Amino acid sequence: MSARKKDVQIQVEIANEDQWGEALSTPGLFVVDVYQEWCGPCKAVQNLFRKLRTEHGDEFIRFGVVEASCISEHKILKGKCQPAFLFYLEGKLVTVVKGVNGPLLQSAILGYIEKQKKKQELGSKYKMEVKEVFLNDYQEARPPKETIPDDSKDTDGNCPSSGLGSYHVVIIKPDAVAEGQVQTIKTKAVDAGYCVVAEEERVLNEKEIRDFYKDKADEPDFVEFMSSGPVHALILTKGENMDDESPDALTEMIDPVQVDLIRPKHRSEDGQEVILEVCGDSRELASRQLGFFFPSFDFSTGTMGKKDSRTQRTVALIRPSLVKEKKDEILQAIHDAGFQVAIQKEMTLSEEQAREFYKEHEGQDYLQSLINHMTSGPVLALALTREGAVQHWRNLLGPKILEEAKETCPESLRAQFAIDDVAINQLHGSSTMEEAQRDLERFFPVEHTLAIIKPNASQEHKDDIVNRIEAAGFSISQVKETQLTREMAENFYKQHSDKDFFNSLVDYMTQGPSVMMILSKENAISEWREMMGPVDPELAKEVNPNSLRAHFAKSILENAVHGSSNSEHAMDNIGFIFGDVSL
Q1: Exposure string (b/e) for 397-420, b if CB count within 10 Å is 16 or more?
Q2: Is the full-model pTM beyond 0.70?
Q3: Distance CA 416, CA 287 (A)
Q4: Got the DSSP string for 484-514?
Q5: Domain total in the chain
Q6: Which residues are catalytic?
Q7: Which of 308, 338, 357 is the last residue of a domain?
Q8: Per-residue pLDDT tens for 68-80?
Q9: Cα-atom radius of gyration of the chain, to the nearest Å?
């Protein structure tokens, strides 16, 4: 793990098995916060951990965070409401502390640090006794008596998988999402004794809505409403101490105007079918909702299959002074923190653009200074991806006020990358998933391009190519299968009419049907061309072996796929094939 990552963060972020193995191989006590994707790492303990590491150093104590589904041995903790802090010494799990209990965590950590110091002082004369515990015995696991006082007891507030009847699914509708009600509804649910096991947010297109709500497919106002913005789906489970016979607090606090509520109650007698009780809608709709948002959620175990796990995207802005002085360093820090830069764009904002971006600060004394700074040179806009990207980026940034960041969070990126003669912090991040979506649309507007699966490939590999297109995140907004006439092919490729290969190309493109598609995505034109690979399939195999032409092209002529070269060509090509379409 990089030195920069330790400098920037008190807790090292573990994202895969290789990083986990490396973390366990390093000497000293390693305390890891195993968190749930929906809530993120525990912030309440960070000051304590910072203090302990400052006082005792990396030689004796290190801290980490890991999402429960990332590491195979931690999956038993998936869906637990309380944080779980796992203590590893010499690569062995020696203590499990459940819940945010500062005195208990401090006592446990100091106990193990004292053991290590004694071993360092006395060498072979001191035998450090530690008892290994196992997550399979999670409920019974306790720290050693000499480390944790006997009267320290776990608060049993976790939400175990307790049977199918304890789960509920809510679908929060677009207007409630747009009004910022997601967190309010989640908070109400938690206050009512429920835990969030899984959540998913996505925008439904008109076809999905009509398939989804078949009984309302012919209501244009409803379709337009449900496609007007993202919906947010949650799976909730009852806390262990909740009485199934008590009045349903969730139903009482749910507003049917804002959400659909699904309640799986039990299985059929043969155990094969989930029977659903639904508030305000049909059982068929509930089944479609469960299958659409959570296709691999297992109600018998309370776990989500890996294929249903999705990364988030957020926007980071690097302001002009930092772009000028430390661009490469901040990009390295972002990479070290486990983010992938999906898209980046360097641009100089006009005053109008900057004022629109910061319009919520209208009337503040500092606004003009901020606008002046933002328009003083190029900013670097980044679309960052990883699990829990929005919250992870916000955690890394630290406080917005630079002096506060330096004083209270010196490891934060805003403190680390402060510019001496500039009073404005140099980094921006989207605050919520809704804001991230708006920022993505602002800085990385969706592009459209024409993609063609050519005759031979359309007959032999159409499904494989389409699957790979969808897996790459493209939306296919229009598609048709058609055979070009000779006149159409000659017109489509007229820019090559003076080339020797022109007649052969026209012959090839008219020998059978092709699949024509409009692909939509940020950076769609360049990403589709990258996905296609070089025109020569032999070169594609060398320089881009995962490209479509490396896999499916037969020759330079029969090279499987076509893509527009720039935005002007894309619009011309789309108009030629599909006519006057609304994009």
Answers
A1: bbbeebeebbeebebbbbbbbbbe
A2: no
A3: 49
A4: PPHHHHHHHTGGGTTSTTHHHHHHHHTSS-E
A5: 4
A6: 562
A7: 308
A8: 888 888 877 776 6
A9: 28
